[in-house]
Amino acid sequence: MKNKILKTSFTAFILFFTIIGFAQEKSSSVVLLDAFYSKIKSQKNPQIIDARGPEEFALNHIEGAVNFNTKSDNFEKAAAALNPSQPVFIYSIAAYRSGLLSTELVKKGFTEIYILEGGIASWIGGGKPFYTNLKSKLTLAEYKKIIAENNYVLVDIGSKYCATCKTVKPILENLRTQYGEKLKIIQIELEESPQVIADLKTVKVFPTLILYENGKIVFKKDGLGDLKNDVDLALASK
Fold first, then answer.
1. Over the range 34-53, which residues count as b (16 or more CB within 10 Å of their CB) and which as e?
2. N or C: which end of the chain has fewer CB atoms below 10 A?
3. How confident is the model at residue 237 (pLDDT cuts 50, 70, 90)?
4. What total number of domains does the chain contain?
């Protein structure tokens, strides 16, 4: 009886670690820009997937990337064209579409998947090479001139395809009404001025909000947070 119990326990033990090992083999990891870039550079023919929509991809993307997501008409065909035994690198704007695609690829047997934290914002905002089919409306020199010529400047950096970025707009309008000429507000979108975002080398996510006072950064917010309160505190009694 004792031997039977021991045998049953040992079998359960082996089964448990087999399941754990299988789960670990089929997984994805969210990694920061430097690790993502380094892993891509280590591959001879990296499998890079842009999980955004085709309109977004057409405007800008990581060089060498292919474009599809779980809602694409060609999803099955595009996934089948990849090598499941090789690493896959996925990005979007944030993590949502990348996560959905990663989950589906894991189901298809892909065992090494890397998702870029911050998505395309992190890649371009970190100054990494990218493709774009347009010229930036705003240059870095023009950006610096605006900062130098105004006492207070609030910069909103985002994308028209970013859901959170859309919630910033009414807050900015509120601040414009409240502070008038005291606060200069400039909005920079990836779809209009990608190069200045790349040249700043400071953007990690969308939206990024930066408040300047006399040319110096008062705060930089990776994400919306309580923007109005932060601006009010910074400009209080000034």
1. eebbebbeeeeebbbbbbbb
2. N
3. low
4. 2
